[in-house]
Amino acid sequence: MKYTNLGRTGLRVSRLGLGCMSYGTPKWRPWVLDEEAAQPFFRRAVELGINFFDTADMYSQGVSEEVTGRALRRYARMDEVVVATKVYFPTGDGQNMRGLSRKHIVQGCEASLKRLGVEAIDLYQIHRMDPNTPLEETLAALDQLVSQGKVRYLGASSAYAWQFARALGVADLRGWTRFVSMQGHYNLVYREEEREMLPLCEAEGIGVIPWSPLARGLLAGSRKSLKDRDTTVRAKSDTLSPTLYDQPGDWDVVEANRSVAEKRNVPPAQTALAWLLSRPAVTAPIIGATKLEHLEDAVRAVDLKLTAEEVKALEAPYQPHAVRGL
C-alpha cells in the first residue's frame, strides 16, 4: 500500500479508503452485509495496509458506525487508523435530527463517538451543505468540536465549488478550523468536478476523496448496459444510480474502460481506479466492497500506471453532464 498526506495536513492516509456503507444491517438496504459478514473485509483491509475508513451516521441508521468501530478495535491499531464519518442526513423523524444546525452537529457528533467507541473522530465531514442553516452557525459548531478535542480534522462532501470556496473563506476570516478534504462525486463516467471543484481543491491544498469511484459498479465491468438492474443485488434496489448515469455516452466510457482493461489483462475496476488515482488533487478514492476479490483488485490499482495513450483512450468518449450527486 502507498500513503500520502490528506491535503495540506500532516495526516497520512492510504491511497484507498474503505467505504463502510456496505456494512451494517440489510434491514436498511438489502445489499448491506451484517456484522458477521463484514468482519473479513475489515481484517483484510488492515492486512492490505488500508488505514482510512469512511462511514456516516445515516448508513444503516448508525449501525454502520457501530460495526466499523468494533471491527477496527478488533483488527487495527486505533492510534494508526483514520476514522471518518459524516453528519447531515436524517437520523430520526424529529425536526432536529437532520441538517447542520449547532444542535444537530453537536448531538450528532456525540452519538457518533459513542457508536464508534472512540474519544475523537479523525475526520468529521458534513455530508451535504445545508441551505436552511446559516453557514456561520455550521462552521462555528464544527470549530467548537475541534477545540473540545472531539474532532481532529474537518471535511465536506458534495457541494458546488462556490459554496465550498465561501466556506473556506469564512473559516479563514473568523479564524475557525477550515475543511481539509472534499468527498465529491468523481469517476471516469462523471468528471464535472474537473471544471471548478478540483482546481479549487488543488489551489487550496484540499485532499479529494471521491465517492462512487466505480460509478456504482458500472466501471467494475459486471453490468451489461446502463439499464441492467439484474446483475447484482445492489443494482436491483439502487434508486440513485439511474439518476446519476443515464446518458447514452456514459456506456461509451464503460466500454472504453473495458477495452483498456482487457488489453492490460486486468479487471476493469483496476484501470478505472488507476485513472482516478492519477488525477491532480485526488488523495484516496472511497471504495465499497462486498466481495473480497473486489477489495484486493482495488488495492492492486494503486500500483497500476497507465500510459498516456491509455489515459487518452479512457477519456476520449466523455460527454459533459448536468451536475449530479449534490
UniProtKB/TrEMBL annotation:
Task: Give the matching Pfam families.
Answer: Aldo_ket_red
Coiled-coil region(s) at which residues?
none
Task: Give the InterPro entries listed for this entry.
Answer: AKR_Detox_Biosynth, NAD(P)_OxRdtase_dom_sf, NADP_OxRdtase_dom
Q: Which GO terms describe its cellular component?
A: cytosol
- Gene Ontology MF term list: oxidoreductase activity
Highest taxon in the source lineage: Bacteria
* Keywords on record: Oxidoreductase
Q: Where is the NADP-dependent oxidoreductase domain?
A: 15-316
Protein name (record):
L-fuco-beta-pyranose dehydrogenase
Report the source organism.
Pseudomyxococcus hansupus
